[in-house]
Design brief:
Residues 55-402 form the Amidohydrolase-related domain. It catalyses: S-adenosyl-L-homocysteine + H2O + H(+) = S-inosyl-L-homocysteine + NH4(+); S-methyl-5'-thioadenosine + H2O + H(+) = S-methyl-5'-thioinosine + NH4(+). This is 5-methylthioadenosine/S-adenosylhomocysteine deaminase. By secondary structure, this protein is an alpha/beta fold. It folds into 2 domains: 3-58 and 353-409, Urease, subunit C, domain 1 (Roll), CATH 2.30.40.10; 60-349, TIM Barrel (Alpha-Beta Barrel), CATH 3.20.20.140. It has 15 helices and 18 strands. The strands form 3 sheets. Strands 1, 2, 3, 4, 5, 15, 16, 17 and 18 form a 9-stranded mixed β-sheet that branches. Strands 6, 7, 8, 9 and 10 form a 5-stranded parallel β-sheet that branches. A 4-stranded parallel β-sheet has the order 11-12-13-14. Strand 16 (393-398) and strand 17 form a beta hairpin. The longest helix is centred in the C-terminal third of the chain and has 19 residues, at 414-432. It is globular. It starts with a strand and ends with a helix. The structure holds zinc ion.
Length: 433
């Protein structure tokens, strides 16, 4: 058995308390063997990570993103969702080549590893390229092909649906089981009813979960209400799209009945506060969802609407925006935001991780607290929510493997990844025009 030890730090426990402890990992199994003060000396570790002066937290889980959209970072800003998608993003995405997706995803994963994220849920195209990037980089992911059927003829639409189901079947369990998959219709308005109904039934037969955008903007909610005299999530429920394995992105414009429905079905909601602010989509009622018992995770959404993939930024936004939305400074407190970005996200997307305890997945971010903006340390959980930046992460570990040590990423060639992404982005922008 190969043993990895994270020694001399303080550890965030599942109940959100912090205590001095070493973490001992079975790196072959990718599991935590033991957590305890001074236990490092009891194990003959093959590899030790120095965590002195650091806080060891569960690896963060970015529960909704489109990682390859890093290529479109800063490509089009300051527009509402609908015209931003139609005028800028979709035309650029129509010019995407598989190599673009590979380059953009590797850049996204590099950024995530460097900011302590060890797992993500990704909806995009050219999924085999995304799988290859996940395999090489050592992170975990739940992946899927995003389906859009509107403005397509029946044959093209059916092929898009089939591709999403096919990649979900083919790649589930890839990369030593670090890759899981889902069927991913883009949203309830961009995929037709018959396709949703049929494909959802097929996905259920094969035990494939669903992930889709829901209730993101009023422009998306109102047409459903007008046409069907039904709220979007009631419509999704009728189509069989809400189970405890499924998760939706955004949930900004949800009624109390829809929140109760999400809680009853056990469907996770991924809160994407920066994207919601930037596209002026609205403020998700996060505290009301938590009070109702909904599993809430946190995601950055794509880099084109954020514009970075730093989940520490995002969980701070979640806490801030949650208070503003509830008009209550006690809403979405630090513990709730930190839990949402770790255990909440992991549970919502159905990936291991999110908690440091014996037997849990060995996924960690080791945050260096020795920085002026983190002194003094009255309350480390407060720091995680309000003061830590992704660049404070010193080591990143996933599945018992060290992905970043002392800020050097070991699984990806940083210089090459950044340079390739720059080149692909430049040629993509040219092709899109
Ligand atoms: Zn999205």
């Amino acid at each position: 058995m190969n043993t990895l030890c994270l020694a001399g730090g303080r550890v965030l426990r599942p109940d959100c308390t912090v205590a001095a402890a070493d973490v001992v990992v079975d790196s072959d199994a990718g599991r935590v063997r033991a957590v305890g003060e001074g236990i490092a000396a009891d194990y003959d570790a093959d590899e030790t990570l120095d965590a002195e002066g650091c806080l060891v937290t569960p690896g963060l889980v970015n529960a909704h993103t489109h990682a390859a959209m890093t290529l479109l970072r800063g490509y089009a800003d300051d527009k509402p969702l609908d015209s931003w998608l139609r005028e800028d993003i979709w035309p650029a995405e129509a010019a995407l080549e598989p190599e673009d997706v590979r380059a953009g995803t590797e850049l996204g994963i590099l950024e995530m590893i460097r900011s302590g994220t060890t797992a993500f849920a990704d909806m995009y195209f050219e999924v085999p390229e995304v799988v290859a990037a996940v395999e090489r980089s050592g992170v975990r992911a739940r992946l899927g092909h995003g389906v859009v059927t509107v403005a397509k003829d029946d044959e093209d639409a059916a092929a898009d649906v089939e591709e999403s189901l096919a990649v979900a079947r083919e790649f589930d369990g890839a990369a030593d089981d670090r890759v899981r998959t889902a069927f991913m219709p883009h949203s309830l308005t961009t995929v037709g009813e018959a396709f949703l109904r049929e494909a959802t039934a097929e996905a259920r037969e094969d035990g494939i979960p669903l992930h889709f955008h829901a209730n993101e903007t009023t422009d998306e909610v109102d047409p459903i209400v007008e046409e069907r005299d039904q709220r979007p999530l009631a419509y999704a429920d009728e189509l069989g799209m809400l189970t405890d394995e499924d998760f939706v992105a955004h949930g900004v414009h949800v009624t109390d009945d829809e929140i109760a429905l999400l809680a009853e079905r056990g469907t996770g909601v991924i809160h994407c506060p920066a994207s919601n602010m930037k596209l002026a989509s609205g403020i998700a009622p996060v505290q009301r969802m938590l009070d109702a018992g909904v599993t809430v995770g946190v995601g950055t959404d794509g880099a084109a609407s954020n514009n970075d993939l730093d989940l520490f930024d995002e969980l701070r936004d979640a806490a801030m925006l949650g208070k503003l939305g509830a008009e209550d400074a006690a809403a979405v407190p630090a513990e709730a935001a930190v839990t949402a970005a770790t255990a909440g996200s992991a549970d919502a997307v159905g990936l291991p991780g999110g908690r440091i305890e014996e037997g849990a997945a060995a996924d960690f971010a080791v945050v260096d607290l020795d920085a002026p903006h983190l002194a003094p340390a009255h309350d480390e959980v407060s720091h995680l929510a309000y003061a830590v930046r992704g660049s404070d992460v010193r080591h990143t570990v996933c599945d018992g493997q060290v992905l970043m040590r002392d800020r050097e990423v070991l699984t990806l060639d940083e210089e090459r990844v950044v340079e390739t992404a720059r080149e692909r982005a430049a040629s993509l922008a040219e092709r899109a025009e």
